[in-house]
Backbone:
């Protein structure tokens, strides 16, 4: 009201300019300083715990600016509307596995469910950017039809350590697959006329103390591993927005880092969209404005006031503020809300469920299949063990969760596929799960629920069940989500009850000449070596979204031949992980108090402990480490079985020495008995002169079309100069070193089927980058100090 009155005074002499009709400059010039400050800070969020300081700020944020954050209830945030200048709000909503909004609204009988697509880890395991594009299209359509403007995803941090609680939202340990799948999602979503926000930029590979965690990392590891996926997504897809992360990199909050946001993102990569902060991220609004973090989300009054003060006190040049506003407006004019799109609130959820189902079955990975235990032809009787056979985990928790209308359980999926189930066992599980749930403390929305301990299966029960069923399925489930990292014991490692169940059931079924199959309903990497010899087959089903049960049944029955491959290594032991000694970081300032209730994630926003995490392993992340240092994994990067087999024909390289680019060509033939698809992976081993190099790096990949038995496909891969290069921090440049490059084409990082080589005859500087994010102290010195 008050603001409205001021605005009236301001424009009383002439009609104000209007966005879309007047120039953006005129629109900005017509804004008051207060309007400018409100515009670069969102309109708040109404979810803080009552009484907290942050809650007052957020509520005040919503009240003072006089706007309702409820244009699309359940969306994560809204920008400030300035009606007199024709500037509509922009609605931003999570997240990577589908649109996250409230499924129900007050005084409204309609529902607003969204499709829960498979989690990102599964999506990466499809190795199929075209399929990812289709997922993006479907997600984007829900964003459009439910009236949101920007989807807060895809999330694309690197799987540095299997314990990161948000790995399910991220793709891979490898930046190429991360970048290509993310670019496809961005292109798919944005094909619908709505935006994306690639996040969390950058180095946010840990949840513990994430709001005050200083990621200490070398420039080379940043450029080659942690930034590279973002670079690919920016250059291939130009997303509307980028979300900066919570953490610091080498001493500076990413949202306050001119090096990251101006030098790397805009200067080196040519990003032309807008940067928003992660929710309540960073510490100094003026520094964020200066760095080019144009929009602070969800926005607080304190931030707006700091910006006003900053301008008045000469700490923030108004020209910088105007530049930020211009970048936001450049995006707003593209939004459906600005264009006056009348959304239907009725996306085609049925069609999108089909996309979810197909995608999930394409990204499941067959880890083991002794003596053709799978497929299990339908019509057979199955005994399903494990809580998650009945209570499927379709995705992770936190902002990456989706409010879907239903999730198909594994047993329902199996019944839909024509199997019969052991009803007695189902009834026993039903009772057990219901009782355990009734005893559980109520988890807050957003927060992970405690896992229900597995029911003890005695040998006599297992044996009785084995007498009546044709095969056993044993499902093991894991859930995780934002705010928390996973634990080694009882999460990465299986519990004694879980291992006991796999053993007792497998023994009982084997004693009767029948098979046992483990289904992993998980979002991230787990330990397998202590139990993997027990069952006949292991299907890594991941968290497959709302159609999970149907998708798993499609693969188990052979309706879909599995073609997923691991996009992250499964190590033998947690200790084998190169970052295991440096995760989840070390608290460096104990003066900040810990959250009163560690399960209360919101307090982590207010009371993070200043911490530091040292990326001591440098560029040796995932298979780059295992392959270089000869550490055998349980299942390597790129691994995955099929119900058929493929032969890789002779590799032809277009030249013996490199001139601009080189093409590798080969035929892949299905030599088995079932139709199937193969993921063909191109690795490069580069010469080591000045710069050390990983033994191999993935440089290209392609999934074949569905090949019938006897059918083959010719595949060609073009390698460009950039793919030969490594980052030399001394020169801030990508350098391709002269020497012999080995091309290794395989069905996994260790199953190399064809090799060839070519020569680069002189050292080449491929690209000069800005000197940025320099690590001033030596990683080892820091580490020694931290460990004292
Ligand atoms: C998460 C972001 C998310 C945002 C809005 C933050 O807690 O880190 O990924 O987009 O909330 O919900």
Residues:
């Amino acid at each position: 009201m008050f603001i409205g009155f001021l605005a009236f005074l301001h424009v009383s002499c002439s009609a104000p300019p209007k966005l879309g009709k007047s120039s953006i400059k005129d629109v900005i010039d017509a804004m008051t300083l207060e309007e400018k400050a409100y515009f670069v800070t969102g309109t708040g969020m109404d979810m803080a715990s009552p009484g907290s300081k942050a809650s007052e700020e957020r509520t005040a944020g919503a009240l003072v600016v006089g706007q309702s954050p409820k244009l699309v209830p359940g969306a994560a945030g809204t920008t400030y509307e300035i009606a007199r200048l024709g500037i509509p709000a922009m609605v931003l909503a999570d997240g990577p596995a589908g649109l996250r909004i409230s499924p129900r609204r007050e005084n409204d009988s309609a529902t607003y469910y969204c499709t829960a697509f498979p989690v990102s880890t599964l999506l990466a395991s499809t190795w199929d950017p075209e399929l990812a594009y289709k997922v993006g299209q479907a997600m984007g359509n829900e964003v459009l039809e439910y009236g949101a403007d920007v989807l807060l995803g895809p999330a694309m941090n690197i799987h540095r350590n299997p314990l990161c609680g948000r790995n399910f939202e991220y793709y891979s340990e490898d930046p190429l697959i991360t970048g290509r799948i993310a670019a496809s999602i961005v292109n798919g979503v944005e094909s619908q006329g709505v935006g994306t926000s690639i996040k969390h930029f950058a180095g946010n590979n840990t949840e513990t103390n994430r709001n005050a965690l200083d990621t200490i990392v070398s420039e080379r590891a940043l450029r080659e591993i942690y930034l590279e996926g973002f670079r690919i997504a920016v250059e291939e897809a130009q997303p509307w927005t980028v979300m900066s992360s919570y953490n610091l990199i080498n001493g500076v909050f990413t949202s306050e880092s001119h090096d990251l946001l101006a030098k790397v993102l805009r200067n080196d990569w040519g990003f032309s969209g807008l940067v928003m902060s992660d929710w309540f991220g960073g510490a100094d609004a003026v520094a964020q404005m200066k760095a080019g973090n144009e929009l602070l989300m969800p926005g607080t009054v304190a931030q707006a006031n700091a910006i006003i003060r900053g301008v008045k006190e000469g700490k923030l040049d108004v020209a910088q503020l105007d530049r930020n506003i211009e970048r936001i407006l450049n995006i707003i004019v593209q939004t459906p809300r600005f264009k006056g799109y009348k959304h239907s609130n009725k996306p085609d959820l049925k069609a999108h469920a089909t996309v979810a189902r197909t995608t999930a079955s394409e990204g499941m990975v067959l880890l083991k299949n002794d003596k053709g235990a799978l497929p299990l032809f339908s019509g057979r009787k199955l005994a399903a063990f494990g809580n998650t056979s009945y209570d499927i985990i379709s995705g992770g928790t936190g902002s990456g969760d989706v409010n879907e209308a239903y999730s198909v359980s594994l047993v329902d999926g199996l019944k839909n596929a024509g199997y019969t189930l052991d009803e007695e066992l189902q009834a026993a599980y039903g009772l057990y799960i219901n009782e355990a749930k009734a005893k559980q403390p109520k988890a807050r929305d957003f927060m992970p629920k405690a896992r229900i301990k597995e029911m003890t299966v005695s040998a006599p029960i297992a044996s009785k069940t084995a007498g009546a069923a044709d095969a056993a399925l044993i499902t093991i489930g894991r859930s995780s989500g934002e705010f928390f990292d996973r634990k080694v014991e009882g999460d990465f490692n299986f519990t004694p009850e879980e291992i006991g169940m796999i053993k007792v059931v497998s023994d009982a079924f084997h004693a009767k000449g029948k098979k046992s199959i483990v289904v992993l309903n998980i979002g991230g990497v787990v330990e397998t070596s202590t139990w993997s010899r027990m069952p006949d087959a292991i299907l890594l089903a991941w968290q497959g979204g709302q159609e999970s049960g149907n998708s798993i049944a499609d693969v188990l029955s052979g309706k879909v031949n599995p073609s997923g491959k691991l996009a992250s290594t499964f190590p033998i032991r947690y200790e084998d992980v190169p970052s295991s000694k440096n995760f989840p970081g070390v608290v460096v300032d104990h003066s900040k108090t810990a959250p009163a209730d560690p399960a209360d994630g919101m307090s982590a926003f207010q009371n993070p402990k200043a911490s530091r995490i040292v990326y001591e392993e440098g560029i040796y992340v995932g298979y780059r480490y295992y392959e270089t240092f000869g550490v055998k994994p349980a299942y390597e990067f790129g691994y995955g079985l099929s119900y058929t087999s493929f032969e890789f024909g002779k590799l032809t390289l277009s030249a013996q020495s490199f001139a601009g680019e080189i093409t590798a060509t080969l035929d892949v033939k299905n030599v088995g008995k079932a139709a199937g698809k193969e993921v063909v992976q191109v690795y490069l081993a580069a010469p080591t002169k000045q710069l050390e190099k990983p033994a191999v790096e993935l440089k290209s990949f392609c999934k074949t079309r569905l090949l019938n038995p006897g059918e083959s496909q010719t595949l060609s891969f073009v390698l460009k100069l950039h793919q030969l290069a490594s980052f030399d921090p001394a020169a801030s440049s990508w350098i391709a070193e002269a020497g012999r490059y080995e091309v290794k084409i395989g069905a996994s990082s260790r199953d190399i089927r064809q090799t060839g080589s070519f020569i680069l005859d002189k050292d080449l500087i491929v690209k000069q980058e800005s000197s940025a994010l320099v690590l001033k102290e030596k990683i080892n010195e820091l580490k020694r100090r931290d460990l004292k």
Summary: Residues 76, 94-95, 152, 199, 278-279, 399, 482 surround beta-D-glucopyranose (CB under 6 Å). The radius of gyration is 27 Å.
